[in-house]
Design goal:
The structure holds two protein chains of two kinds. In chain A, 45% of the residues lie in helices and 12% in strands. Chain A is an alpha+beta fold. Classes of the chains: A alpha+beta, B alpha/beta.
């Protein structure tokens, strides 16, 4: 067996030689950030080894929300497991339901009616907007801007009202289920949605004026926590984090699932400073780009929703007989584009109704694993800027 | 590149190290022998025809009937600007490595794909697969003092943890698996 040379990891102490900077040598200190901390977005604990204001090491510790959801999946029939999926990434319940439903449908060979697929895509994109609004608002909070949060939640509230009218729930929907959606759209739903879209689209410019191009915000985020494209791919970062590093990769375009190939939309990627509409100090792959890619994605989601509303066909909203599905003795792994990145489900059947293995590949889990790599060597005050821009949800990170 | 072609190339390069190829499944994969897995992994990442630069997921399996554990690696080739035309392959492949259930040792691939770091820790924590050569193989989701590996089919649920009693009314300590 020939040995492969192990790649040396970057030395966190490199470039921090105090004698070069003419600074007084200070003592190293361990700072425990979290698990209860407003800037960690849930129960994330980061152990920081610091030298003055400089962070030498930022080691994330996760698992505080672990419920072993994968073991639960081995004890329930797929339609019973749907409510557990939207409690993973609780800000994007629709997308999580959709991912698990697609995995089971492909495994068991269920044909989903066309109308159901349109409704699913519409709701998945609405949920993407709602999720990005939370990310946008709370990122402002992390950076000391309180007002944008209120604006973001005002519009998110309207999306939640739309969801409530369709399925009765505001956060954990279980609306998208095996074979379609649980209920057809309520009366006048498309008209109300159309009104909302007309109202919402101009608001995106308002968000940018309020936060994205604010001088203080740009100074806090530009050139902070830069992730190169190669690093992003090596660490398997996905979603807005990967695209902010300049990699044009979105599963909705590269391997379209459901009916995403029927829509015309663009994939926003991170841009260098000085490009059109980008402040000069910005670098590809920095925190500002990770923020703005989400704002740009909201506009693209609006385009998809408008096209889906126009093309909405008539027909049944769910396939017949999906409750007592027998899963074949086979396995499947699918990934879909969640607001936070690629959400993967591995399901293995054994001929009964209950899967013998369910595995979840959470985008937050993979995205936060890069924190030590980019966090070492930055300033203490930059850590909230980096964690906030990666936009994690601990429920799905810990599962 | 289609999974069939990838399997043919792997067989040409590594011969018997490709123990099996399952192409009829909904998700095709190749089974690789443990002792050549590190070489195959480096080949999959670096060869111009493969360029699997992204390790998306490591799924650990408990194959009770065969008395084996397995790790399934899902690999993608993602285009990166400026790394040459070969990087735009956009294909997907899965590799399965099986290991004896009583002595589950696998070589780490975290030096080839850094993304494997946390996935291997998770497989160790929940399934008890030991990844030799990993820099920090500790529990990641369960507490450090947790006993056993919950995703094993013969896992026995604890009746209490630090004085917190577990509910046994619903036969919770004897689930289906």
């Amino acid at each position: 067996m020939s040995e492969i040379a192990l790649e040396t990891r970057p030395d966190p102490l490199a470039g921090t030689d105090k004698s070069e900077q003419g600074d007084v040598r200070t003592e190293e200190m361990l700072v425990n950030m979290g698990p209860q901390h407003p800037a960690t977005h849930g129960v994330l604990r980061i152990v920081l080894r610091t030298d003055g204001e400089l962070v030498l090491e930022a080691v994330p510790h996760i698992g505080y929300l672990h419920r072993c959801a994968e073991k639960i999946g081995e004890n329930l029939a797929p339609y019973q497991y749907i409510p557990y999926t939207d409690r993973m990434d609780y800000l994007a319940g629709m997308n999580n339901n959709q991912a698990f439903a697609i995995a089971i449908e492909r495994l068991a060979g269920v044909e989903v009616p066309l109308r159901a697929q349109y409704i699913r895509v519409m709701f998945a994109e609405l949920n993407r907007i709602a999720s990005h609004l939370v990310a946008f608002g709370t990122y402002g909070l992390d950076m000391g801007a309180f007002t944008p949060f209120l604006y973001a939640f005002r519009e998110r509230e309207m999306i939640l009202d739309l969801f409530e009218s369709a399925c009765g729930a505001r956060l954990t929907y279980s609306y998208i289920t095996i074979g379609g959606v649980t209920d057809d759209l309520p009366d006048r739903f498309l008209e109300v949605l159309d009104e909302f879209m007309d109202y919402f689209e101009p608001k995106i410019d308002e968000y940018n004026q309020l936060l994205s191009f604010n001088q203080i915000f740009v100074k806090r985020t530009a050139d902070v926590g830069v992730i190169s494209a190669e690093d992003a791919v090596r660490w398997a970062l996905t979603g807005p984090v990967l695209r902010a590093s300049g990699v044009n990769w979105d599963l909705r375009k590269s391997t379209p699932y459901e009916i995403y190939d029927r829509f015309d939309f663009d994939i926003p990627i991170g841009l260098p400073g000085g490009s059109e509409g980008v402040p000069r100090a910005v670098v590809v792959g920095d925190s500002w780009n990770r923020h703005i890619v989400k704002v740009w994605e909201m506009r693209q989601s609006c385009r998809i929703i408008r096209q889906a509303m126009e093309q909405m066909p008539e027909g049944p909203h769910i396939a017949a007989k999906t409750k007592n599905l027998k899963l074949p003795d086979d396995e499947i792994y699918i990934e879909i584009e969640n607001p936070r990145g690629q959400l993967g489900f591995y399901v293995r059947g054994d001929g009964t109704q209950i899967p013998s293995r369910v595995k979840v590949r959470g985008p937050s889990f993979c995205n936060i694993s890069v924190l030590n790599h980019i966090g070492s060597g930055c300033l203490l005050a930059d850590i909230p800027a980096i964690v906030g821009s990666i936009d994690i949800v601990m429920g799905e990170c810990d599962r | 590149m289609a999974p069939e072609e990838i399997c043919i190339i792997l067989k040409q390069e590594f011969g018997d190290a490709v123990a099996d190829t399952v192409l009829s499944a909904r998700r095709p994969y190749a089974v690789i022998a443990i002792d050549r897995w590190r070489d195959v992994a480096a080949f999959l990442r670096d060869d111009g025809r493969m360029r699997f630069n992204m390790l998306q997921c490591i799924t650990s399996l408990d194959l009770v009937k065969e008395n084996k554990l397995a790790a399934v690696y899902d690999l993608f080739s993602v285009p990166v600007v400026g790394v040459g035309p070969c990087a735009v392959l956009r294909h997907h492949f899965a590799v399965r490595v099986e290991v004896d259930r009583d002595n589950p040792h696998l070589p780490t691939v975290s030096h080839i794909w850094p993304a494997a770091d946390w996935h291997e820790r998770e497989a160790f924590d929940l399934m008890g697969i030991v990844f030799d050569g990993h820099s920090d193989l500790t529990r990641i989701l369960c507490p450090d003092d947790w006993v056993g590996h919950p995703l094993r089919k013969d896992y026995e649920f604890p009746l209490e943890y630090h004085g917190i009693p577990a509910n046994t009314e619903h036969e919770i300590n004897s689930p289906r698996h």
